[in-house]
Design a protein that fits this description.
Chain lengths: 548, 334
């Protein structure tokens, strides 16, 4: 009887699925204007009040909530997506790259020895609470940060530590006059200006910092194009137009609402019905569905990431360079990209993406060549291969939409050269914890750049100083270390780039990773949305966005 | 009855204390270091050590437990490691969202489940009986994840009747007073928003109601079948009492005890088990609050969240136990 019930239930589910599939297919053909016809109460209410042509309210759907609205207190990307619109930094990145442009500072002059930077500030800028933005405010913010610690202000470590620390780069920040600020450094730091442009270093209103104290993380006040209105945790964050914004005629939108919808497919459903206007975190596999809908458009974010397979150089047999090179020959990156990235990625050969200055394009990638791989294994003393653990990331990331499936492909390639890989996974926290302790044989991981500097990739991920933090492969090479340290202090761009190119050669030869991909993260939006230029850092300033 | 009620309430206390201990030990057995997770991939070793000390996680477990209980007794649930906010203030909106959804789902489940069960028993072996029981079987085994996406696909994208996600129309938000939006919209006198909130409740409500509805239907049916075979029902029918009256008055009253038990259990499970539904429908409820906290090893939030849900569970069961006595005075408590 029981078996019969189960059988019957299967039949029913099958019929139900078919009915739903059929239902969808036919209505797709019938509805030529799903945007207006299929609107739910949300969409239609909105449409009645504000016709599509003059929509001034943007609902941005994303996967997770912010942890704080005071950007310096966190390293989490979801926070910056909101705060870049509330706070401004002294310098800005380019609209779609990490070149430097005026921000709250209009001019910046480094001294010849690279130890002093004088910044001229923009005139007539006011914080959202009505107080003036000036040199004193800049000094106040930097004093606040440098007197903290890495737990309070994790990203401030970009400046080599905190006040009193040996490595701290900023000796002094001084207000020369109302609109001039001077930074004195203890030693030259090449990425200094690029660091200033990072969104965690958004300048906050000193008055508001004093008024709100610990609660500033829920009451952010900056000078940006939008003012903070409301935060309902795990649900939505609302910001509205700053009418006093210094950029004439901007922002175009009146209101922006950041909504949390954790599940990618559900978020796409909400976009299809018009409940949200823009979403990030599109599954590569959903690309076809969006492109087939005339009311939607896809928007590509320039790539500034790398996804890789790390080989822990302290564990046998990965301590053998030949083995690492062999594994580099044994992975079909093109195949992985076609299958799991919807083609939206390029195969990686270096530990940093080609969009960065200093990228070494002359390096020839290890070709996908199983015979060569076998040969190298034999030479290394493993003619019959070996057994290993292959760690697969449990969470999707832009550089790795599905770690488990990528691991399966790698596993089957490895099997062909006699390497038996057992796929292992842990939940994300445990995964990072164990990998950072060097407990993995080989692990999938990746990195999205912070400031568009080569140092932020190669030094952060592969220098011996970074072992225990981000150098999860425990790779250590003194020659490389010397080059990277030198590159940190050289301010001449050409000389710097030459050093990084050399560094990439060393990394290529030593092969501590199999660099896999540089992916292109995807956004989707209503087709009437215009003016959004997604930024490679992952946080988009919405000043110029509007609906046509 | 009164002394029974008091005794039954007092029995809750050791249960709750035991629960704090169990929850406390289990979450510390999860591998993974909270400091590492909070500071993320970019953390340095010193930062991790400093944060561990600041959170008191370098203390022996019994001191941590003692601090935790001390806080609880003074009504302090602690601070979230992730947001630094006091959990006392943070937790209510999440809890309210889940309570609203669970009650709505339970009402659907009870109305449809009980009636489907009764009618199935009444017309045993009819086509209705077979269909209802097969649907119930599907309901129990349906993955909520799949069901949720199918609902959105059918009712939002294709038919355009209902919104896909969230609790309200964010373009015209409800001003939160109690955070139970159905009540808030009424307080504000906004019937239009009341309807919008109901619309937002329907899809997640159905997804969440599916399993309890199926279980309730099956239990009601079997319980009713038993009662309807009994002598007093036969007598009533022989005396010419109308069938509807026989079924809904005489039989149901006698068949309701096991149904009540199941309703109680299921309501408790709903509160804690809404994670999948809340994820698919972007519902900012307690399930996701705890789930996210587990991802971050946010111990204080996990502890307090589970404790609150468990307390609800215990009290719902208490209410069910007391209801037994009301429904059936023959039940005696010693």
């Amino acid at each position: 009887m029981r078996k019969k019930n189960i059988f019957l239930s299967f039949i029913f589910m099958l019929v139900l699925s078919l009915a739903l599939v059929g239902c969808n297919g036919s209505s797709d053909e019938e509805t030529s204007e799903p945007g207006t016809d299929n609107d739910t109460d949300n969409g239609s209410e909105n449409q009645e009040e504000t016709p599509a042509s003059t929509q001034t309210e943007l609902v941005f759907g994303r996967g997770g909530d912010s942890t704080s609205l005071d950007p310096i207190t966190t390293t989490e990307g979801e926070t910056f997506k909101v705060t870049v619109n509330i706070f401004e930094t002294l310098l800005n990145y380019g609209e779609q790259d990490t070149t430097l442009h005026p921000g709250l500072a209009t001019e910046w002059t480094p001294s010849e020895d690279g130890l002093t930077y004088t910044l001229k500030l923009r005139e007539g800028v006011k914080f959202h609470d009505g107080t003036d933005f000036n040199a004193e405010a800049v000094v106040f913010n930097f004093e606040r940060w440098m007197n903290g610690d890495s737990d309070q202000f994790p990203y401030y470590t970009m400046f080599g530590g905190f006040k009193g620390d040996e490595g701290h780069v900023i000796k002094e920040v001084k207000a020369v006059d109302e609109l001039t600020v001077e930074f004195t450094l203890t030693r030259p730091q090449a990425p200094f200006l690029k660091n200033l442009a990072m969104s965690p270093f958004g300048i906050a209103s000193p008055t508001a910092l004093e008024t709100h104290g610990d609660k500033f993380r829920e009451n952010p006040v900056g000078t940006g194009p939008f003012k903070f209105v409301e935060w309902k945790p795990n649900d939505r964050i609302v910001i509205e137009k700053n009418p006093e914004y210094w950029m004439e005629g901007y922002p175009k939108l009146e209101t922006v609402i950041f909504r949390v919808i954790p599940e990618n497919s559900a978020r796409l459903n909400a976009l299809t019905t018009g409940e949200i206007d823009l979403m990030d975190g599109v599954n590569p596999s959903d690309l076809g569905q969006i492109e087939g809908n005339a009311d939607l458009q896809t928007i590509k974010r320039p790539s500034m990431n790398v996804g890789y397979l790390g080989l822990t150089a302290t564990r046998e047999p990965f301590d053998n360079k030949l083995v690492r090179q062999a594994l580099n020959h044994a992975i079909d990156k093109e195949g992985i990209i076609a299958a799991f990235y919807g083609g939206l990625a390029e195969p990686a050969k270096n530990p940093m993406p080609p969009s960065l200055e200093g990228y070494n394009d002359e390096i020839e990638a290890y070709p996908y060549d199983l015979a060569k791989a076998k040969e190298l294994l034999a030479e290394a003393g493993y003619p019959d291969g070996f057994e290993m653990e292959l760690w697969a990331m449990p969470v999707p990331r832009p550089y790795m939409p599905d770690g488990m499936k990528v691991a399966e492909v790698i596993q089957s390639s490895f099997a062909e050269i006699g390497v038996k890989a057992e796929i292992v996974t842990y939940d994300w926290g445990t995964y990072l914890d164990k990998a950072s302790k060097g407990e993995a044989d080989a692990f999938l991981l990746g990195w999205t750049g912070d400031n568009g500097d080569a140092d932020n990739f190669i030094y952060t991920l592969l220098d011996k100083d970074s072992i225990g933090s981000n150098n999860y492969s425990y790779y250590s090479n003194d020659e490389l270390h010397d080059i990277l340290i030198e590159a940190q202090t050289v301010t001449d761009p050409e000389q710097r780039n030459a050093l990084y190119k050399q560094a990439q050669e060393i990394v290529h030869e030593d092969a501590p990773w199999v660099p896999l991909v540089h992916s292109t993260p995807l956004l989707a939006a209503k087709s009437s949305l215009a003016g959004l230029l997604p930024h490679p850092t992952g946080s988009d300033i919405l000043t110029k966005v509007e609906f046509k | 009855m009164f002394s029974y009620t008091i005794r039954r309430i007092l029995m809750v206390v050791p249960v709750l204390i035991g629960m704090t201990l169990v929850v406390f030990s289990i979450i510390r057995a999860i591998p993974g270091d909270p400091a590492q997770i909070i500071l993320g991939q970019r953390a340095t070793e010193e930062a991790i050590a400093a944060l561990t000390a600041k959170l008191g996680l370098d203390q022996p477990w019994y001191i941590q437990y003692f601090e935790y209980i001390k806080g609880l007794l003074t009504g302090d649930l602690g601070e979230s490691i992730r947001t630094n906010g006091p959990i006392n203030e943070e937790i209510w909106p999440y809890l309210a969202a889940t309570i609203e959804l669970s009650i709505f789902a339970m009402i659907i489940a009870i109305i449809i489940g009980v009636n489907a069960g009764i009618i199935s028993a009444w017309f045993q072996n009819s086509w209705f009986d077979y269909t209802a029981m097969v649907i119930a079987l599907i309901g129990v085994s349906m993955p909520i994840f799949w069901l949720g996406l199918m609902e959105q696909w059918a009712f939002s994208i294709n038919l355009g009747w209902l919104p896909t996600t969230g609790r309200e129309n964010v373009r015209d938000p409800v001003s939160a007073i109690t955070n139970l939006y159905l009540i808030d919209t009424l307080i504000n006198g906004r019937m239009d928003q009341f309807v919008t909130v109901i619309k937002h409740l329907i899809l997640p409500g159905i997804a969440l109601a599916t399993i309890p509805m199926a279980i309730i239907a099956r239990i009601t049916r079997s319980s009713m079948l038993e009662v309807m075979k009994s002598d007093f029902v036969r007598t009533a029918r022989a005396k010419g009492v109308k069938m509807v009256w026989v079924v809904y008055k005489h039989s149901l009253k006698n068949a309701i005890i096991p149904v009540l038990t199941v309703i109680g259990l299921q309501t408790g499970l709903l509160l804690g088990g809404a994670i999948l539904t809340e994820t698919i429908f972007g519902w900012p409820g307690i399930g996701r609050y705890i789930f996210d906290a587990i991802g971050y090893r946010d111990y204080p939030v996990i502890q307090s969240g589970i404790l609150i849900v468990a307390t609800f569970f215990v009290f719902i069961n208490l209410i069910v136990d007391l209801l037994y006595a009301v429904v059936d005075p023959r039940i005696k408590y010693n």
